[in-house]
Structures are given as structure tokens and as C-alpha cells.
Write a structure and sequence with these properties.
heterodimer, A: alpha+beta, Ubiquitin-like (UB roll), 5-stranded mixed sheet, 5 helices, about 30% helix, globular, B: alpha+beta, Uridine Diphospho-n-acetylenolpyruvylglucosamine Reductase, domain 3, Enolase-like, domain 1, 3 domains, 4-stranded antiparallel sheet, 14 strands, about 35% helix, about 25% strand
Amino acid sequence: MTTKISFLLNGDKISYTVKDHWTLLHLLREKMGLIGTKEGCGNGECGACTVIVDKLAINSCLYLAVEADGKTIETIEGLASTDGTLHPIQQSFVDNGGIQCGFCTPGMIMSSKALLDENPKANLEEIKHALAGNICRCTGYIQIFESVEAAKEPVVENKGGQNE
Amino acid sequence: MKPFKYLSPTTVEEAIAFHVRHSQTSKYIGGGTDVIVKVKGGFLEPDYLISLKKIEALSELHKNEATGELSIGAMVTHATLEKSLMIQKEYPIIYDAVSNIGSLQVRNMGTIGGNLINAVPSADGAIPLIALDGVALLHGPDGERSVEVKDLFIEPYKTILKSGEILKKITIQPQAPHTGSAYIKFGRRAAMELPLIGIGVLLTVNDDLVTCAKARICLGVAAPTPMRALDAEIFLVGKKIDEKTLIEAGKIAADESKVRDSVRGRAWHRKEMIRVQVRRMGLKCLQMIRNNG
């Protein structure tokens, strides 16, 4: 009922013997002490436990730890630089008031990161679509969306007269 | 969560052989977005979870350019379908349905096969596959068999799959020229919602671009299982498709639906929405057909 798995976690190679019924969330929080990832509903409804597995945002509460074998996993702990400099999306949430109680924030930021890594110019509709699985009970979402918008790559306007 | 042993066979045969040995205590698992919820809640207590994730053939999505047949492996995730340019362009009804299932996190994990096998009345994934006359390929201890997707469902949470059978893929034959298709998941909010009602319409018209050659009107949450509104379909075939005929088709579809009151909505509201949305989706199909010439 145990399986030895190896995976890349925030750039570090990890080997761990896990019980087959552990979720990835359980492994991260209870066994590895990475409590930045939150447990909200535990049923894939709220998105608080969102982490990135092989570039895709997933609910770690429904993802079995054994399935992490061979995967590349990113959690909120991996975003800031070792010197403490925040990731641009984190900084944007701070600057734009995208945080109230903060419980949903790691999930919001991981969903936003998966989106912007894949689609750096995501528009507001695409941001809303990508964050639809992250529930925030404090805010009206507006400042969260603004935070993600502000973290996007700056749009370079073509002000020259030349057509391509 | 009750402990279990997790198995990762790499072939369908291996998975079935294991299931045969432990049929009472094992359960297949796809993306896990339904199974893990049920295990966590104590509704399922398997000793063995047989994962289908490592069986590569089940995750293939491709269109045979020679025959035009579309093949969707059962383990293809909703997100893979949603992001496929081929699906977006050629099968808009599939895109409409899968792009609003659960959340992106769920769509990144959940599979089209799992959505069918879970067999909820609200399965968004089932409606387009029924409208497209999809055929499911099953493989079990007694070998392979094919069944139309519309015939997969017996009652809520129950399919015709026998013990040990695996849904391998869904195939869809090429659509006739002048075909349009659209689905709407109608609910009260845009995010993390199950549909109050799901309506999928597929129309094929003749070369005159108005006379209906084929119609599919498929409804979710309108009966214990996903259903086709056959009377409405028959009514449309041979008619000139316009707003008037679509309004009539919507009324017929609403009448033959078996909607009921539930926590998410009232029967009368569901009927009204079938009437409105059959018309709207029909008009959307017509627009698509005309845009494509």
C-alpha cells in the first residue's frame, strides 16, 4: 500500500515513499510541511489547494500523491526568489489589493501563474475563465482580476506607421 | 480516506485481468475528479484502484484524415478537448460543452470517458457526443463491443457497462456538409455550476441552405439520463429551418422532456428554457452553416 515516487518540486528533486491513498495535498502539507497550499473544501470545488502539475493547474485535494511520480510540481512556496523577492504575480496581488484574508490567495496565484505561463497576454475573459474554479469569500473578485491583469506582460503598442 | 492499493496497468488487457481477479473490491479510476470525491466521502470503499492513466492508447485524440472519423480516447481530458483547435473549429458543440465543465483544475484532470461513465443526468460531455451520433467502444472480460453513446445510460449513475468493462474511446463519423452544432449549459451562475438544463442542437441542411436534412436535439437534466427529443427532431426534418419552425421544435422538445423539480430548479422553468434555448441553439447552427457557405 506504499509506493516510492520521485518528482520535481519547485525545482528540487524529491523522492518519497507515499501511502497510495494520500492526496498530493496531504503529502505537501502534512508530510512535507509546505502549508502554503490550503485545504478548503477537499472536494475540488473551491480551488484553495491549486498547484501546478506539468504546467497544468489542478486540485491537489483530488490528485493522488502516487500520481505525482515523474511529474514537475510547482507550489506557492516555489514562486518567490530565494532572496525573498516576490514573483511578479505575488507582487501584483499585494500592489493591487487582491488579498483580504489570504486563504484563497495561494490557489488564486497558482491558477494565475498557470494561465500566464501559457498565455502571457490573457484578456479579462480568459482570466475569469481560468479563475472560475477559485472561490474567494471576502472580495468581489474585481481586485483579484485586476491583480492578474497588472501582472501580465506589458502590451507593446505598435505606434509605427508600418504595416507588416 | 480509507486506504487502498493503487495499480497502474499499461494495457487495457492488464487492467481487465486485474479487475477480474478482484471484481468485488476494485474500481477503475480515470482523472479521479469523481472517484476520489466518492472515496473520500465513504460512498466507495475499494481495496484496489485500477488507474487507466498509464494506458497511453486511451489518451489519444485524433482525426483520421482519410476517413474523416474522429476518435476521442476515454482518458482525453476536458481541457485537452477545449484547447484542441480541431475541436474548436470542426466540433463546436463539443467545445461548447467541455469548456464549461467544472473548473479549469477539474478539466485538467477529469476525462470525457469519466464524465460518461459517471452517468449523471447533467453530464455536459454526453450531450454533444449523442448529438454527433457518437459510438462508444467498450472492452471487457468477454471482449470488445460497440454501443451508441445515447444507449450507454440506464439511470442516474448507472450505465450498461458490465463488471470489468472499460470505455476505450468514442468515435464520430464525419459530418455532412452544411452542418452546424451548438450546446448551452444553462445555469444561474457562470462559474462552478451544474446546468439547470443542458441543450445541444445539431442541424444539417440541404444545398439550398434552408431545408432540414438531419436534426439532433439532445437534452441534459431533462430526464433521468441524457435524452434525445425525437419528436422535435422528426418535426424538423424536411422543413424549412427558420425562427418559426425552431420555436415549434422548442415547444415539442419541452413537451417530450421529462423535467422535474429539483434543488437546482423547477420543472416549469426547465421547460421554458428548453423552448427558448432550442430556438437559440438552432439559430446559432443556422448562422454557422451560412458562415461556412
